[in-house]
Amino acid sequence: MLGLQRHDLAHLEDMFSEDEVKAVIDDLAADKAPGPDGFIGIFFKKSWSVIKGDIMAALNYFYQQHDQQFHHLNKAHMVLLPKKENACSLGDFRPISLTHSIAKLFSKILAARLSLVLDELISRA
Question: Which among 96, 115, 117 is positioned nearest to 27, based on CA atoms?
Answer without folding.
Answer: 115
